[in-house]
């Protein structure tokens, strides 16, 4: 098993040099080509002054360029810091500031969003950020100044003040007549060990303060070798990825798993049924993972004219999975393998998984059992293991646990105890076979179409308006996304607060999945004796409305 991610890439390039590694629109990269492209990025990073251990960020949607850049960052011995492509400027700046990123790769516009302009409004305090490199516009959204397929080298990329063009950046690594840069990259790659940090993946957490989970090379390759073996991913598979690369589901179970097993990765920037089904048909896709909402949307769509016979693997989770959904995936789409799993960013994305031959009831009602080499328990408040069927906190221990939160030992100590158990904050039960069922999510977190939404973070943003004295956000059911946010807000005395305006204000400042879909103006929030908002009372207020439906 490769000890590092660059070692996994080197093995793939040696084992399957001519096999397709990444397909993105017109661009088709073999594993040998991906190896060469990532080496070019690594040389350019070294030429730009990036050294081992430096943090380098990527803020862009899924693309072949994203893969090349990420692998180049690893090969230079640097640490990848992904940024949520749905973030607004202030949110992205917070991640860059907290991580101390030296260099950031941004895309030049996506879905009408100008990333560079958004970040420019929040450059204050980004003292460590030396340079921004601008990637070409995503495929399917060409710009007048860049008609080449996204990620193609040597596509110039746009020419904009305050940023370096993609081709200019790469050219630095090509100016290497004596091989000094190539030697430096080789040395950095060779010096990497399994315990070295590969990524800092930020999870906002229930406090609303961003925390960067430090994940390692060795844990990443080991977890996703096991993950791939469980789901049956193999060389020759064609993996359509709708999970974003900024999430461990995209970065690890997507990009890394494909490199480990020699599968072809087809990154997809935005999910919609026609384009995804067309790609399944044309590219003979065999693997398409996603949250339950994606599969429900597919099953509810007209699939006439699409050939889905190649599709055999589905992996889901991140929300409750109806038993009927698993049955329909198998019966209506003919999927031979449907599995679910459970994990946290802090556990390198995976802790438990169902096995492909589990009964549909097990797949739907549980998140499976611990992957090899990992321990999972359900404990009481004192840390004592509980018998099967008894609810308690889920704790995890093993090689998959993060090294800690970046530059935040206090927060690390709060979640990892002296015996190495990571306390998830999730409440669940375990059956006699070890299968875990999540009964309550981490604190008040809710999941919007597969994205974790944290009320404390949204509440803090709402209070920045200035006309609110209190805000409380809960998750409410949604037919399409599973859950969406609802905000209860208390106005300042004399302030007139319009719910529609609050929603519009939020859309301009938050990632879409965080935006409350409903806002209710109230005179006061229910509080307990310690002054904390009693959110179950807010949920109870909605019961008559649900029953009325």
Give an overview in words.
The chain is α/β, with parallel strands linked by helices and 549 residues long. The chain folds into three domains: 5-214, Rossmann fold, CATH 3.40.50.980; 271-440, 3-Layer(aba) Sandwich (Rossmann fold), CATH 3.40.50.12780; 446-548, GMP Synthetase, Chain A, domain 3 (2-Layer Sandwich). 33% of the residues lie in helices and 23% in strands. The strands form eight sheets. Strands 4-3-5-6-7 form a five-stranded parallel beta sheet, sandwiched between helices. The longest helix is centred in the N-terminal third of the chain and has 17 residues, at 31-47. The chain is globular and about 70 Å long. The model is unreliable at 140-154 (pLDDT under 50).
Main sheet strand line-up: 4-3-5-6-7
**CATH C-level of the largest domain:** Alpha Beta
Reported CATH architecture of the largest domain: 3-Layer(aba) Sandwich
Overall, the morphology is globular
Largest sheet: 5 strands, parallel
In short:
The chain is an alpha/beta fold and 549 residues long. It is 33% helix and 23% strand.
